[in-house]
Design brief:
With 466 residues, the chain is an alpha/beta fold. The chain is built from 20 helices and 16 strands. It has helices at 12-24, 35-45, 61-71, 86-94, 107-134, 147-161, 177-186, 205-213, 230-233, 249-261, 287-292, 298-304, 320-336, 345-353, 359-373, 386-397, 402-405, 416-430, 435-441, 446-455, and strands at residues 3-8, 27-32, 49-53, 77-81, 99-102, 166-170, 195-199, 214-215, 227-228, 238-242, 263-264, 273-274, 278-283, 308-310, 342-343, 378-379. The longest helix is centred in the N-terminal third of the chain and has 28 residues, at 107-134. The model has no long low-confidence stretch (mean pLDDT 88). The protein binds adenosine-5'-diphosphate and magnesium ion.
Length: 466
């Protein structure tokens, strides 16, 4: 396949000569004369390589470079610079240009630079493809600096370096259990072996069993060939048993046996097969309650809980909420080609006050949705789900406890009627005599308020409808 090159230069002669020569070297050439045309041509043609003159009539070459890199960060860009204008070229390198070449240039030299640039880009793409395939789950993927998350990361590091074969991850939905399981695997000496993800709630019981243990030929009708199970296939690696709380009671006993003896039998099999696999079990259920109800085995629970890890809910992670939001915004900026910078002050307040029952998953969804709909630089409450906005309103309108109001009872005691009267007067004063407002300040209904001000003879001090 032909490689595509975009040539950006305002000098017609240069464009013409490059087109001729690169054409001979086997390139398909797209041209642009101005910066704005270059960006447009780039996003339409998605070339494999760009030759960019930094002195353009309409905009700075650096800005063109940055826009191009924003569309495809791995594309090699070679700067063409006039003799004696090295500084701009050096600046361009800082913004991700691959190399520069001075005018007038020899076409052989340019060809060599272009070959090298393309090879380099190819390797970079291979690396990112490989990372995407294996899932590049490093510690840096776990965002959060709150004390709880710092402690969490410390324990995770320890676990991944240890030989312990069972880990129990507890925590509400969306708190990052899957993420942590993958990080533990990827940071352990098991990383080069497989990570197998099994959702115990999603598969029917008999299927989970044959998936995990495999079966011998003829083990059941339809088993015309034997099959290896996941415990066999993930030997040396990690099995992630998600929603372990939903695992069938009998299967729990079999799992316990695998953990204890590090051996198992295929369904219908008679030989014990050895396996060395780390089991990371996760649940958002209260396993203690399930033990009491007789649906979860206590012995398995304690066996799994050798290393327990409880993910804190997002609402207990303080400013991590803002930090994680910021990272998601940056990620979606790239994905949706947007330029959002962060949360508006109002949104920050709402986010910190909200309970986040769906935790990080919910936060991610909220930001994704807001960024699709919002065109402001900062995410305003306009496109937030109503429950987030309403939760803050409800919280604000809730009566505050005594300490917060600075109310104390003196040694000699107080007359509660008198205090009630004082509160009514104060509320009327604050509401400038408006009864409806005063009633709202005291969280009283219209009749209750009326009754009270009449009782204390305060109705003359106010006006209007309550
Ligand atoms: N601390 C974190 N930093 C960054 N992303 C996170 C964090 N915790 C969770 N996520 C992301 O939130 C989403 C839900 O997390 P997940 O691990 O699936 O939760 P769980 O398994 O507990 O339901 C995923 O997209 C995950 O990558
Ligand atoms: Mg999960």
């Amino acid at each position: 396949m032909k490689q595509k090159a975009l040539v950006v230069d305002d000098e017609k002669l240069i464009r013409w000569s490059l087109k001729e020569n690169l054409g001979k070297s086997g390139y398909e050439v797209v041209e642009a004369e101005k910066g704005s045309d270059a960006i447009k041509a780039f996003s339409e043609a998605l070339p494999d390589i760009v030759l960019l003159d930094v002195n353009l009539p309409d905009m700075s070459g650096i800005d063109v470079l940055r826009s191009i890199k924003g569309i495809d960060k791995d594309v090699p860009v070679i700067i063409i610079t006039a003799f004696g204008n090295i500084q701009t070229a050096v600046d361009a390198m800082k913004f991700g240009a691959y190399d520069f070449i001075e005018k007038p240039f020899e076409i052989e030299k340019l060809n060599i630079v272009m070959d090298k640039a393309l090879e380099n880009a190819f390797l970079r793409r291979e690396v990112s493809r490989y990372k995407a395939l294996t899932g590049d789950y490093g510690f840096e993927h776990i965002i959060g600096n709150s004390p709880k998350m710092q402690e969490m990361k410390r324990v995770i590091k320890k676990i991944s370096q240890s030989n312990a074969t069972t880990v129990l991850l507890e925590g509400e939905t969306g708190t990052g259990k899957d993420l942590i399981a993958r990080v533990i695997h990827n940071q352990s000496n098991r990383a080069h072996k497989s990570f197998v993800d099994v959702n115990c709630a999603a598969l029917p019981e008999n299927l989970i069993e044959s998936e995990l243990f495999g079966y011998e030929r003829g083990a059941f009708t339809g088993a015309s060939n034997g099959k290896k199970g996941l415990f066999e296939l993930s030997n040396g690696g990690t099995i992630y048993l998600d929603e372990i709380g939903d695992m069938n009671y009998d299967l729990q006993a079999k799992l316990l046996k695998v953990i204890d003896s590090k051996t198992f039998r295929r369904l219908g099999g008679t030989t014990e097969i050895m396996t060395d696999v780390r089991i990371i079990a996760a649940t958002n259920r209260d396993l203690q309650a399930k033990i009491k109800a007789g649906t979860f085995r206590e012995d398995l629970y304690w066996r799994l809980k050798v290393i327990p890890l409880t993910m804190p809910p997002l609402r207990e992670r303080g400013e991590d909420i803002l930090l994680i939001s910021q990272k998601f915004i940056e990620r979606f900026d790239l994905e949706f080609k947007k330029q959002a910078k962060g949360l508006s002050p109002e949104t920050r307040k709402l986010f910190l006050a909200y309970r986040w029952p769906g935790n990080v998953r919910e936060l991610k969804n909220v930001i994704e949705r807001a960024m699709i709909l919002e065109n402001e630089e900062y995410i305003t409450p306009d496109y937030l789900p109503v429950e987030i906005v309403q939760a803050a309103e409800a919280k604000a309108s809730q009566p505050k406890p005594c300490e917060e109001l600075g109310i104390t009872i003196p040694e000699g005691g107080v007359d509660i009627e008198n205090i009630e009267k004082e509160l009514l007067k104060k509320a009327l004063m604050m509401a400038k005599g408006n009864q409806s407002k005063a009633a709202r300040l005291l969280n009283l209904g219209r009749d209750a308020f009326r009754y009270r001000i009449q009782k204390f003879g305060l109705d003359s001090e106010s006006q209007g409808e309550a």
